[in-house]
Task: structure prediction
Amino acid sequence: MNIEQFEDKGLAHLSYAILCDYAAEIVLIDPARDITPYLSFAKKNKATITGVIETHPHADFISGHLELHQTTGAAIYCSQLLGATYPHQTFDDGDTIAFGRIELKVLNTPGHSPDSISIVLTHEGKDHAVFTGDTLFIGDCGRPDLREQAGNQTAKREELARQMYHSLRNKLLPLDDEVWVYPAHGAGTLCGKNLSDASRSTIGAERISNWSLQTMDEERFVRALLKDQPFIPRYFSYDVGLNRYGAAPLQKSLAQVIIGKPVKFSNQIFIVDTRPEQYFKKGHLPGSINIQNGGKFETWLGSIIAPEEAFYLAADSEEQLNQLIRKAAKIGYEDFIEAAFVISDGSEGMDALNMEKFKSATDDYTIVDVRNAAEAQEEPVFSHAINIPLNELRDRLTEIPFNKPVVVHCAGGYRSAAGSSIIKNAFKSKTGVFDLGESVKGFFD
Result:
């Protein structure tokens, strides 16, 4: 038996292939949109992919479950509560899958979503591992506030938080201490708030160190779980729905993206310019916002641009452009790309902030802090700053006065580059807009 873990660092997503050497069969759990790594793993091990399990309809990425079924003939397993419209076999409490000396038995573990399941792997009659999806993470548990308006079944966050309390204690904690825990996400995901950097653990280790498994009554647990959850990107509910139906094959979707700079741009459509901020500021096209290519590009693209909203995608090379189109496809946004093209310059720019002048008279500027509210409250930088989190900025631009020059900051420069470009694009010549960038670090106590 072999458990292979696949990691997508950009989305902090973990998926799994369970290989039974004896039967030469593989069952996948929570696969990513790109199915190539799983097909390669099967080929390398001379095994057949016979099953794909979805622990729930994911909010933060598009799954490749339907394409895997279409490509390999593997059966898709998911909870009946999911209401899947793709070909599938329901998989709920009491159901099992057996192949070789391996048996997979399902536990309904609602809490992150009403339709969440966890999968216990039994090898030669002994519980060996549990695949917990977004129910139990290493150091944390899944957030309960993503299904109030999405999915086949919706539920209020308080209700799901209570279900999470019982799922953890009645379904997962009774497992033996030596059972390995394999979650669907690691640190950096927005599906939880305080995950460990570890990618696996054991029930025994989590019993000791995971806050959500400690002795407490239900009311205390619910309060703690609901407090300070991270923001919800715009794309999350869209992905829940798309995963419930199943996405189109990746290569077919990518082939439909129009490559090449349009002869004429629509001024109603943003240009998402992904170049490093120093190049963007030097010269970009009118109507551009600067969402830099980086580790969290997918998250910020899906937080700033709404589902179904068309956008142009620009990069500084063909290699980068192809990479970014694939990143957009991870969250199902390839269909919204009006055109994708390479860019090196543009007719508009952004001036650099005069730091000496700013330091000597910060009151002469309107300062906009685009960090999350909890960050701004915990470690304020400027006492008179207006806090508008980056994911809310487009909807709250009217809260920013333009009687003074505007200076935008975050914690390190990535979000402020995007935020300042959004404000500059909206304010145009009304007032100066500046990005404090990495210089903000000099203002922290």
About this structure: The two ends are 52 Å apart (CA to CA).
